[in-house]
Amino acid sequence: MPIGKFMMSGAGSRCAACRYLRRRCSKDCIFSPHFPSSNPQRFAYVHKIYGASNVAKMLQRVSEFERSHAADSLHLEAKCRVEDPVYGCVGLISRLQRQIHNLESEIAMTRALVMMYESSLDRRKGSANGH
After folding, report:
1. For residues 80 and 90, what is the distance between their CA atoms, to the nearest angstrom?
2. What's the rounded Cα separation, in Å, for the pair 42 and 39?
């Protein structure tokens, strides 16, 4: 039966959180809609950074409508923090901003070269017509 955006397969299946915590997954488990058994690493990241109790509290404080987004955000932030313990998401944002800056510079240089070549062609056409 569907729960949130994931499917529970059978009555005895546990979500990734309950599997990780080695406990029974109840029908009203706060984790099951957001941490499917098919993706155990998703909960492992979140648990490592925030702890299961804190994640449960955070999800309970958010409206049901926003829980999916909150779980996605917690996962992304935890994954970034595990991959880059010093900077986390800020490191990712910084790298992306540098890429944007470098690409904008490259575009500006390319536009300048195009203008230079166009100007050169215009001068050649002008001097060829003038003779």
Report:
1. 9
2. 6
pTM for the full predicted model: 0.69
Length of the chain: 131
Q: What would the pLDDT profile of 101-121 be if each residue is shown by its tens digit?
A: 999 999 999 999 999 999 888
Residue 126, token pair as written in the block: 């002008």
* Closest C-alpha among 52, 54, 31, 43 to residue 78: 43
**pLDDT tens digit sequence for 45-84:** 999 999 999 999 999 999 999 999 999 999 999 999 999 9
In this structure, are residues 16 and 35 in contact, taking their beta carbons and an 8 Å threshold? yes
Q: How far apart are CA 79 and CA 46, in angstroms?
A: 7
